[in-house]
Design a protein that fits this description.
The chain has about 425 residues and is of the alpha/beta class. It is built from 16 helices and 15 strands. The N and C termini lie far apart (about 55 Å).
Length: about 425
C-alpha cells in the first residue's frame, strides 16, 4: 500500500495507517532525498511519523554505528517517540538498536552499554545528549547522518538551545538537519543559519486555533477566587477525559488537592515529579483510570493521549501560542472538543489577540442548570481599573492645583493621567 521498505509498509498497515497527513505527504519525500528541513506544524498533525518514516527509509540496518539522533525537550515525549520508532522497527527482520536517553535512568548501566555497542537510533533530551556526547565522550556522533530537533520552540523556551548546539557541533559537515516546531521564534534563527544548508521551509497552516471541532468557552471569574469558580464549574461537566492546565507546578498541586478532596478521579503531572511517578501517571491516564488530569505546559504538546473531550485553562497561559497548543489536545480525529478558560478583567488584551487571530470565542456563566450564555465582553460596560501599588505611588505625586488655580478641563485631564499611569505600570508588572 505504501511505497516504502517492505517492513516499514507492513508496520504502517499494522498501525492502521490508511493515508498520510498533510505534513507527512510534504515532509517524507524531501527528508528521504536528504534535504535539510525547517517544518512548522502543530500538535496532532502527524509530524512524528513524518520524520520517523524517512529515518527508517534511509537506515542501513546492517550498519551498527550511530546513524540518527532525535532531540526532544521532555523525557515523556522522548519515550513516546521511541515507542513509535519501536513499533516500526519490530517489523524488520534485522534487529534495530534504538535507545532512549533521558534523566531518571540507570546511568552506570546505560554508560556500560554505550562502551560495548553504539545504538543505531538515539532519542534523548538535550541535556542528556550533551552529557553523553560532550562530558562523557561516549555517544559517538561523528558519523550521524540525520539530526532531528523536535519541538524546537519548546526546546528554546526550556533553555536547551545551547545543549542542542554543542551536540550538533560534534556531528559531520554532511549532516542532514530536520527541525520541527509549532512556531518559528526569532531566537532560533542563528541555529538555523548555522546548521541548515539551503533548507526547505514547510509551513503547515494551523487549524486548532480556529477549528470548528473545538468550542472555546470563556468564563469570567469576576474577581472571585479561581478555586471557587472551578468548584462550581466541575459539577456541570461530564467529560470523557479532561486536562486541567495550570501555569505553575505549585498551582497544579493546589488544584489537584482540591479536586481529589472533592472526590474526582484525578491525576497530577508536572516537571517537579520524579521520573518514575510521571511514568506511572501517564500509564494510568492511558489505562483510563482517571477522568481528569491536572498538569502544566509540560503536557501542552507532543504527548499522545487520545480521546480528550475537554480542556480547562485554570489560568490562561502567559504566551497566547500556548493557548493554541493546550486547546489543540482536544477536537482531534474529527471529534468535537470543548476548551473552557477562566479569565478576569486584566485578560482583555489577551482575549482581543485571540479573537484577532480568528478564534471564535463564546462567553459563558455558570448558572443553576449549567453553563449559560453571558454578555459579550464589549457589551458589559465599563470595568473597574486595576491599579498596581507602583501605579498608586506614582499617582499620589501627581501635581494638584490649589482651588483658586483650577482651570477648565482639569478634572478630565487628571483622570486621563491616572489611567495612563495605571496602564503603564500594569504593563511593566506583567513583563
Amino acid at each position: 500500500m505504501f511505497p516504502y521498505k517492505p517492513y516499514v509498509s507492513r508496520a504502517l498497515e499494522a498501525l492502521g495507517f490508511q493515508e498520510l497527513t498533510e505534513v507527512q505527504t510534504r515532509v517524507i519525500p524531501a527528508a528521504v532525498s536528504g534535504r535539510d528541513l525547517m517544518v512548522t506544524s502543530e500538535t496532532g498533525s502527524g509530524k512524528t511519523h513524518a520524520y520517523l518514516i524517512p529515518l527508517f527509509e534511509r537506515l542501513v540496518e546492517e550498519d551498527k554505528s550511530l546513524q540518527f539522533v532525535i532531540s526532544s525537550p521532555t523525557r515523556e515525549l522522548a519515550r513516546q517517540i521511541a515507542a513509535f520508532a519501536q513499533q516500526i522497527a519490530e517489523f524488520s527482520s534485522v534487529p534495530i538498536d534504538i535507545r532512549v536517553f533521558t534523566g531518571g535512568t540507570d546511568r552506570p548501566e546505560e554508560m556500560a552499554k554505550l562502551r560495548k555497542q553504539m545504538p543505531q537510533i538515539v532519542i534523548g533530551t538535550p541535556g542528556k545528549l550533551r552529557d553523553l556526547t560532550i562530558k562523557e565522550n561516549l555517544l559517538d556522533v561523528h558519523r550521524v547522518r540525520t539530526y532531528v530537533v523536535d519541538e524546537a520552540d519548546m526546546t528554546l523556551d526550556e533553555g536547551f538551545l545551547e545543549d542542542i548546539d554543542r551536540v550538533a557541533s560534534r556531528m559531520p559537515e554532511t549532516l542532514q538537519t530536520l527541525v520541527f516546531s509549532a512556531t518559528l521564534p526569532e531566537k532560533i534563527q542563528p541555529f538555523l543559519r548555522k546548521y541548515l544548508r539551503n533548507p526547505e521551509f514547510i509551513d503547515i497552516a494551523g487549524r486548532n486555533s480556529t477549528s470548528l471541532q473545538i468550542a472555546h468557552y470563556f468564563i469570567k471569574t469576576k474577581g472571585r477566587p479561581r478555586e471557587e469558580v472551578l468548584g462550581k464549574l466541575l459539577p456541570n461537566l461530564r467529560p470523557y477525559f479532561c486536562i486541567v492546565f495550570c501555569n505553575t507546578k505549585e498551582t497544579a498541586e493546589n488544584v489537584y488537592r482540591q479536586m481529589a478532596d472533592g472526590g474526582y478521579q484525578v491525576g497530577l503531572l508536572h516537571g517537579g515529579l520524579e521520573a518514575r511517578k510521571r511514568r506511572q501517571v501517564l500509564a494510568a491516564v492511558r489505562e483510563l483510570r482517571y477522568q481528569y488530569l491536572v498538569t502544566t505546559d509540560l503536557l501542552s504538546r507532543g504527548i499522545d493521549i487520545p480521546d480528550i473531550s475537554h480542556i480547562i485553562n485554570y489560568e490562561l497561559p502567559r504566551d497566547w501560542e500556548f493557548y493554541v497548543h493546550r486547546t489543540g489536545r482536544t477536537g482531534r480525529m474529527d471529534k468535537n472538543g470543548v476548551a473552557i478558560s477562566l479569565y478576569d478583567y486584566d485578560n482583555d488584551d489577551y482575549l482581543n489577540l485571540l479573537e484577532a487571530r480568528g478564534l471564535k470565542t463564546v462567553y459563558k456563566e455558570i448558572g443553576r442548570e449549567g453553563l449559560i450564555d453571558a454578555k459579550v465582553r464589549g457589551a458589559r460596560g465599563k470595568r473597574p481599573t486595576i491599579i498596581s501599588d507602583s501605579a498608586k505611588q506614582a499617582i499620589a505625586v501627581l501635581p494638584k492645583p490649589k482651588k483658586d488655580q483650577v482651570k477648565p478641563g482639569y478634572k478630565k485631564k487628571y483622570q486621563e493621567q491616572v489611567k495612563s499611569l495605571a496602564k503603564t505600570y500594569s504593563g511593566k508588572r506583567g513583563k
